[in-house]
Specification:
The protein has helices at 10-25, 30-41, 45-56, 61-91, 94-98, 111-191, and strands spanning 101-104, 107-110, 196-198, 204-206. It is mainly alpha-helical and 209 residues long. α1 (10-25) packs parallel to α4 (61-91), α2 crosses α3 and α4 packs antiparallel against α6. The longest helix is centred in the last third of the chain and has 81 residues, at 111-191.
């Protein structure tokens, strides 16, 4: 069971990108690429797909276009070879035509392999459409999460401002209370101040209230 959940390294991203590009060039599906990378990194295919669509894919847009062009060129070359074999079949026996070989990308291929490649390319289109749909869904989820995060940050800033205002009001109230307490103490001191008078012998005596 694949349970690896640690952070992706630069080397992991490079391996993911190179594997996906190779599968695109060869007319394979990105799902197979995700399976291959998942086996190599002990991660799930879904985790590899999410990493590709959310992070890595944007860094390799030019390479993806180049890989797609190369795939189309291979497809055209296979088609040309197929029709060439068909023309040969008009003048040669069917058994010889079936095993006739042509050179594509430096290697010899039979008519059987050409037909197999064409079938594989035909199966690639639905998978590509499904990946595009998954990519749009992931982008929509990412935009939704980003908007939610911005909303929470706005609320946090508003709460900080309100807290600051409450703190200022509290300090003002404490200052007023301290001032009132000091005034009360001064008034008590003035009321409690004793009165004296001097007697005939020059001594001070305290006057009763």
């Amino acid at each position: 069971m694949k349970t690896r959940q640690d952070a992706w390294s630069h080397e992991d991203d490079v391996l993911l990108a190179e594997t996906v590009l190779t599968h695109i060039k060869e007319g394979s599906t990105q799902l197979k690429a995700f399976d291959e990378v998942g086996d190599a990194l002990n991660r799930t295919s879904a985790a590899c797909g999410f990493r590709w669509n959310a992070v890595v894919r944007q860094k390799y847009l030019k390479q993806i276009d180049s890989a797609k062009r190369e795939r189309k060129e291979r497809k055209r070359a296979l088609s040309a070879s197929y029709f060439s074999q068909a023309r040969i079949g008009k003048t040669e026996s069917p058994s010889r035509t079936f095993y006739q070989t042509a050179t594509v990308d430096g290697g010899a291929v039979t008519l059987e392999s050409i037909i197999g490649q064409l079938k594989q390319l035909a199966q690639t289109e639905p998978a590509s459409s499904r990946l595009e749909l998954e990519n749009k869904q992931l982008r929509a989820q990412l935009e939704e999460k980003t908007a939610k995060l911005n909303e929470l940050e706005t609320k946090l800033q508003r709460n900080k401002q309100e807290h600051s205002m409450i703190e200022e009001d509290y300090q003002s109230l404490i200052s007023i209370m301290n001032r009132a307490r000091r005034l009360a103490i001064l008034e008590e001191d003035e009321h409690d101040h004793p009165a004296f008078r001097m007697d005939a012998n020059g001594n001070l005596e305290k006057l009763s209230k």
